[in-house]
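Hi L.,

As promised, VWFA-related protein:
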Amino acid sequence: MRPFCVPALLATALCSIALCSPAQLWAQEAPSPDAPPVSTAPDTSNLDQQPPTTTLKVNVNLVSLFFTARDKRGALIPNLTQNECQVFEDKQLQKVKNFSPETDLPLTLGIMLDTSGSQQNVLQMEQQTGDSFVKRILRDKDQAFLISFDVQVSLLQDFTSNPRLIAKAMDQAEINTAGGNGSAGIPGIGQGPMPTQGAPKGTLLYDAVYQVSNDKLRSETGRKALIILTDGEDEGSREKLADAVEAAQKANAIIYVLLIADRGFYSGGGMINLGGFTGDSAMRKMAEDTGGRMIDVGNNGKKMEAAFAQIEEELRTQYLASYTPTNTRLDGSYRKVDVFCKHNNENLKIQARKGYYAIAPDDSGQ
């Protein structure tokens, strides 16, 4: 596996801007035909007396919520209107500025594959089903990347619109236990190995979500989703569950978890006895707090195929509601958000992220 890193595109862009002259960076109005000739040479006679130049930055704190709506039978509702929905922030009604179905908005999709020892018996099933899903859902204007996590976090395939590249990388993924000890270090994003405490590492699930949210998704715009194929068990992460959830919320990323657990592994019938399976509650919280879902498929291939089909349908039946909060302070605080919709006199079940952090748009990547 190759280390998890991100190309320094931002540095390249900044260098390109720095090499441009002021005349290249600013558009000039064409002079009037009757006007006298005007010198284009800069006036430097009183440069020392000029006050320092300042840049005016205007932040528009626009909150965007992607959500799906279902009726009491669980069927997705594809034809909602703005008048049928309300958005509340900290229990205060907000004025929705934009409301639209987003079936074709470009999608940034991250797929995270658990390659720790507990997935030994289900990895092949994940690869086969995941290949088919990626080939169905990824369109020319979409982009996806593939991450594996075990005793380290690795980028198997960077951003691409080619589903065959994702499928190829997924097929090449392998179980990695590092002999049960990951003390060799966790690859950081663009910064080499991260220091460890010398303790054994098992499955760096929370670290992986935290890193991917901050370093792969936060700077992206539009619809963003993470699909995590895992048993939900974390062992050895430096970040906590709350840190991973917060990072995903700040990146405005929806998390779907396919809970894939070979339960015999945890009950003593597998390689080791871990005292039972406990990953479902943490994964449910991670998914629901970001507007996604956890789907328990066990080690059943048919259930996994059905779960991928459900995710595909939801990602193609989303709505986008945007509003400027009545609370205009960008103080970094967490704001609770609720969406309520009613269709044909029926209250709908809404699947949306539960809140956001009020940080400046330049810093949020939202």
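The longest strand covers residues 334-343.

Thanks again for sending the construct details.

K.
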